[in-house]
Amino acid sequence: MDRFLRPSLFFFLVTLFHASAFAQTGPGGVGNSSDNALWLDASTLILNDGDALNSWTDLSGNSNHATQASSARQPKYKTGIINSKPVIRFDGSNDLFNLSTHITSQALTFFSVFSSNTSGAKVIFESENHLVLGRNIDAYVEYNSRKSIRKTWTTPSIFSLTSDNIANSTYFMTCDNNSSTKSRTSFYSTTNSTIGGYGNLSGGAFNGDIPELIVYNTALNSAQRNIITNYLSTKYNLTAIQDLYSYDASYGNQLIGIGQEADGSNLSARGMDSILISNPSTLNDGDYLFVGNDNAGFGTNTNVEFGLSERWDQTWRAGVTGTPGNVDIEFFLGANGFAAATNYVLLIENGDGDFTNGGTTIHETGRTFSALPSPSIKFTNVNLSNGAYFTLAEKDSGIESVKSGEWEDTDTWSCNCIPTDVDVVTIISPHLVEVNSNAEVLNLTLNSGASMTFDGFDTLKIYGNFVINGTFNAANGVVSVLGSSSTNEFYNNSASRVDFNNLYVNSTNGLTLANGGWAISNNLQVKAGGMDVSAADSIVLLSTATKTSQILASMSNAFTGNFIVQRYISSRTSNFSDISTPISNGTFNDLDDDLPISGANGADGNATASGGGIFYSLYKYNSKKDKHDTITNINSTMIPNMGYEVYLMSTLSTFNAKTIDFIGIPNSGDQQMSSPNVFNQGWNLLGNPFHSFIDWSFVTTYSSIPNLGPIYYIYNTNNGSYDLLNASVPIAPEQAFWVYQPNTGGYYPTFSESAKVNSNSATFYRQKYKNPHFKLKINSLDNSFANELNFNFNAIATSDMDIMDIPNLPSPIQEAPSITAKARNSTEGLILNSLNPLDEHQLIPISVKAGITGSYEINAENLDALFNNYSCAFLKDKATNQSIDLIVEPSYHFEAEKGESDRFELILSNNYDQCHNLLEDNSFIQKLDSKLELRSASNQWFLDYTLSQENTQLSISVYNLAGQEVIAPIEFSANGAGSYAIREIQNLEGIYLIRVISKDGIINKTVKL
Q1: Of these four, 294, 454, 627, 901, which has the most CB atoms within 10 Å of its CB?
Q2: What mean pLDDT is predicted for residues 585-607?
Q3: Bridge partner residues of 477 (DSSP)
Q4: Residue 180 backbone dihedrals phi, psi, to 5 degrees
Q5: Any residues with CB less than 8 A from the CB of 467 and at least 6 apart, and which?
Q6: Helix (H, G, I), strand (E, B) or coil at 866
Q7: What does the DSSP assignment read for 914-931?
Q8: HSE of 254, CA atoms in CB hemisphere, 13 A
Q9: Number of helices and strands (H, E) in the chain?
Q10: CA 748, CA 700: separation in Å to the nearest integer?
């Protein structure tokens, strides 16, 4: 790493003093030696407290020093007086300075900081045409008459005078936050230029302190005056006529500024601290940019981010008023250079001023090094926001692109090699580098004007930081974030959103995205370290008509900061849809900006229902009370794991495809339902909590059904029914679904990361599902609505309501038909009826509901599933006394009045004659008397029950032959008809007593397990 010679502290102080004495730049960066006639600053003197001064050095570059040869008349140098800075103290007796060169200009702008201890007006400054005086409560200017302006009592004040070159004219004074315009008929007249008294020795001796005094031989414009008064107010912690800089406390040193008002501007400013700001791009009236520093000096430190070596200790801070635009910044290095010319960068920190913790912008635009007349480094088109910190730094020397080409081509790089995981790489303008195979890098910078893309499905492994100032095209590529030392940081300093195809994070300290917009179109996975996007402008998980992004199995608490999670919903019939939230902090407002919502005090107000009153488009399901509850507050929380029914419509009849978005922190890690939202007996409306497809069979529910894969239902908006699905169809992101719990409740289902399924399908459930069940499907021939009844054949099933039977879930569409079966001991309609194929024949009562009066059709489907168990199947219509052989004619047309009817029976048998006997027998008799019965089937034990509709508390205990309880009592409540699988005893062997206790009695049964 190249280094310039570092000076000693002594040489640095001498150099600084020399620069101070001969600077060609005015205070605050206003003017130079041609118009800045005099500049006296006590803080540039190196003296001891109480030393007498024979000379006060002029900093204007004109060598117009203030001198006093007589030791009896020399003012004193006092330290730590005004804002801990030194002053020149005049004794009010005979102290006086004479200027080396008489100031004769008629046009003049004068500034002074002073405090006075007397009530009489005494001389502060005298020149050929102007006299300024001050006392404890006023400042004065004397021409043909003396005029005053009030100041703060006895405390230090900033005074200014602006005069043109016309004798019979007006002049302008300010003091503290007061201003006044006065008139005159002539100038003051004297042959002396003095400070602290009259040059003719006739009194007027000033009694007080003067730390700084500034004279221009021209009338400055108001922007220049504002800059100088802010320079003085910041330096001495005093009141300015217009305070334009807010960072005085820590960054009030050597303030300079540019600005503009209606009467003129100051377009460039160089201070005495090695910096020049110039060339503002959009400076208008009232716009200002000030820069002050922390006076930390020009040593260097290594408190910088990856990709940088060191920086100056000194830091500057910007104060912005209005919109001055971008500027050029030039640093004058002198003997304080520390890097090769091509390695200098400008660091800008818009946050907390810490250049090590992320968020730092590295600016290299327009970098130009000049060796003469003294070394300097310049940057153009720099944007400084209000409060921004900046300093000069050195970037790591590393590998640079030398031409456009492929990553794996050694000719692409300055090292004539292929970069590895320890290399710092920069792609410079106008080069385009293509990742054409798997690649790796430590730190990567994409300069403005440079481009990078992927040729195929290759992976770029980044072990450090990625700074994007140019164009990044992920195409089909993968960016993998690795590393074990510190946080990986990605910065988007380009003007465009950066889109990743696949982004994988497996880094010890995680990934931080900062600045600009980001998006992921395919896969995101955070296996270790976490991902913090709080410093980014935005990050979007994209979803389109052809593809949806997904978050693959990741660590718990993987994310910090809000994401925009999109979900594309395809076109469909206007209807309710089952939706869930993928974020932890979402509300229904996430839907309100994308969908018309009624009845929840949202942006679209309320629509009117067809029968009058408010139409409610948001519902949740109350599983305890078995009813839908309206959601009336758009600010209500959307709870992960819970499902919601949302009405989708663009017109009265159709919903046009739409992308909705959720803004918040994506759910990650185990997502468990919590009280009061539990998995209850009966129907439950759950929601996929992840932005990914999930496999329902991997969700822990404590309610799996023996010999039957996990089953769930999703509402079909096109036919108004609930479609039965199993785990062969993954549940889509943001998809809600229905699950039936046959008995007990109070469970807390857990959706784990391992339940995720890798899929980028674009839409909600639309996949054709091959239903394994024999079923009867009813269709309305007058509208598009339909419903189906499924039959499952299982050796543990009974003709009673058992653990594998699922009741019908009524459609929210009143015009939709339904078809259901009934168990022997229940009047509840079943949408899934389990039958025991070991029974030689079955007679099942079938009910239909006609949503409207009209024509209907029942179709028998998937007859192969029936033939495996029965050879004869008849559907009997008791209303018309027709019997339909479903094996021969699987379709039946009939007319029905609106309403429900028990008009059908399904007869199944392995004997054709028996089928006919059952058709004539009508032998199905329901048995609704209360009962409890223990039953064994397929090496499992069940408690079958027929109860009233009121909840009944049941308790199951198991004892060994010694009378000892061998498992904890099983207690649950139940109602209606059903069956409970006693899985807790599956691992027991031997002879045991099972005891069941209810309010109606006790059952004891000795069993061999």
Answers
A1: 454
A2: 91
A3: none
A4: -160, 140
A5: 307, 362, 443, 444, 445, 446, 490, 491, 493
A6: helix
A7: HHHHHHHH-------S-E
A8: 20
A9: 6, 85
A10: 8
3-class SS string, 535-555 = ECCEEEECECCCCECEECCCC
Structure tokens at 966: 């061998």
Is residue 316 a contact partner of residue 347, using CB atoms and an 8 Å limit? Answer: no
Q: Is 307 left (phi over 0), alpha (psi -120 to 50) or beta?
A: left
What CA–CA distance (Å, rounded) separates 321 from 290? 9
DSSP secondary structure of 117-158: --SS-EEEEE-SS-EEEE-SSEEEEESSSEEEEE--SSS-EE
| Residues forming beta bridges with residue 194, ordered by sequence position | 98, 126
Judge contact between 994 and 1007, C-beta under 8 A: yes
Beta pairing class for 275-278 and 268-270 = antiparallel
Q: First vs last Cα of the chain: how many Å apart? A: 80
**Strands across the sheet with 1001-1008, in order?**
970-974, 952-959, 991-998, 1001-1008
Among candidate residues 698, 684, 638, 695, the one with its CA nearest the CA of residue 662: 638
Specify the residue for token string 């978050």: 551
Q: pLDDT (tens digit, 9 = 90+) per residue, 645-670?
A: 999 999 888 999 999 999 999 999 99
How many Å apart are CA 53 and CA 49, to the nearest integer?
11
Query: Which alpha helices (DSSP H) does 449-607 contain, by range?
Result: 589-592
Cis preceding linkage at 749, omega within 30: no
Residue 17 is classified by DSSP as H
* Stretch (H or E) spanning 251: helix 248-251
pLDDT digits (tens, 9 = 90+) for 913-957: 777 777 776 555 555 566 788 888 777 888 888 887 777 888 899
Centre a 10 Å sphere on the Cβ of residue 53 and count the other Cβ atoms it contains: 20
Residue 627: CB atoms within 10 A of its CB come to: 9
- Other Cβ atoms within 10 Å of 462 Cβ, number: 23
Instruction: Read off the amino acid at residue 849.
Output: K
Task: Return left, alpha or beta for 154; rule: phi > 0 is left, psi -120 to 50 is alpha, else beta.
Answer: left
Residues in Cβ contact with 114 at an 8 Å cutoff, skipping those fewer than 6 apart: 124, 134, 139, 156, 157, 159, 208, 209, 210
DSSP code of residue 760: -
Distance CA 584, CA 444 (A): 33
CB atoms within 10 A of CB 153: 8
Mean pLDDT over 150-174 rounds to: 95
DSSP 228: H
Task: Determine how many CB atoms are found less than 10 A away from the CB of residue 80.
Answer: 10
Closest to 463 measured CA to CA, from 508, 516, 433: 508
Q: Fill in the amino acid letter for 529.
A: G
State the Cα–Cα distance between residues 66 and 54, nearest whole angstrom.
8
Strand order across the beta sheet in which 977-981 lies? 931-937, 940-946, 977-981
What does DSSP say about strands 360-363 and 344-349: parallel, antiparallel, or unpaired? antiparallel
Q: Which one-letter DSSP state was computed for residue 623?
A: T
From residue 766, give the alpha-carbon distance in Å to each of 503, 717, 786: 28, 10, 16
Determine the residue type at 375.
P
Contact 617, 646 (CB under 8 A): yes
The sign of the CA dihedral 836, 948, 713, 778 is positive
Let me know: does 755 contact 730? Beta carbons within 8 Å: no
Write the pLDDT tens digit of every residue in 793-832. Answer: 988 888 888 888 889 988 888 899 999 999 988 888 999 9
194's tokens: 């003095």
Structure tokens at 945: 């029950």
If residue 33 lies in a helix (H) or strand (E), which one and from where to where? none
Tell me the CA distances in angstroms from 11 to 17, 293, 334, 504, one per residue in order: 10, 21, 12, 53
